Amino acid sequence: MKVLLIGGAGFIGSKTAFQLLAEGHEPVVFDSFDPQIHGDKGLSHVPDLRNNLPVIEGDTRDDVALEAVLRTAEAVYYFPACTGTGQSMYRAGQYCDVNVRGAGVFADAVLKSGAGLSRVIVSSSRAVYGEGAAECGTHGRVFPRARAAAELKCAKFESTCPLCCAPVSPLPSKEDDAFGPVSIYGITKLGQEMVIANTAAAACIPSVVLRYQNVYGPGQSLSNPYTGILSIFTQLLLAGQSINIFEDGLPTRDFVYVDDVVAYNCRALTAPLTGSVSLNIGTGVRKTIFDLVQALGVALSTEGLHFVSGDFRLGDIRHAVADTSLLFETLGSLDFTPLEVGIQSFTKWVTSQQLSGQANSTFQQSLEEMRSAGLLRTAAKA
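Request: output the structure for the sequence above.
Response:
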């Protein structure tokens, strides 16, 4: 199949392109090569990408360029997005432009080009759920509101029941859960997936929306300080710097290894699906930030130097984990890579790269940008 991967030169897109090539498809990559993601020298895998398949440089907001590349495509993966949750809170215009208007231009191009697409696959995010689902002892399954700045300032980090304000326990997010994005990034990803899925439905094109949890692994950007917590933490430890752990170190995330994500990306292309379906891509296992730092320390043979600052970012969520029931039912089950195994592979790759040594300064710069915008604050000590 002739497959167009828009934003396909990035971390997940490029690995998907290589896997599609290995499976006998004909992938074509269309990418803007955003310097924030690719760095000045570009991601290390890009030369291999250019040597093995067609790579076209272009912006998803360029309707003429999009219509041209769509004419010969039989299926499309849509990856492009600004992805920094924290950065989105003070660059709302940029995120709305790239993520939502870009999706709108793509939607128009699909209709104008007369593309005979058999499928559109959209990379979305668990951020569309916001704080996600939780269990209240009185009210059962509920959906906590965004945590208030005043509560966070008092070090009250856990979410509460929206009905009775009682403590709640986090639950895995299901695809039909209520949406509740708490960051500009989450809002724009929700808009993006809805624009494309709606257009695909109008054009009678089957669509698959894949809501990724925290994806990590070899090949991710080492120069982008606004996303990729493993990349940032690893480089800090290699430089002998301590890790600033936000809140109380107990936020949890569902860390999913990139090869597992790619496997599901490729299954989504050929699975016998009709209409539109949304699927969570995650392991279903929650890990705390402390778990992450400990695993990194073991992989790097360091003590995993860190300190709990009580810093918090407006727009962050407390807990995240995927319910994988529908994913397994639709695309089959998978033995996910355990975090400790994936981190070993990731850190081995990182140490093989030519690091700039600027991880700490660029990360600190990103934090100062947030602090200056009033979005990074520190909780009062008990």
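The chain has a mean pLDDT of 93.
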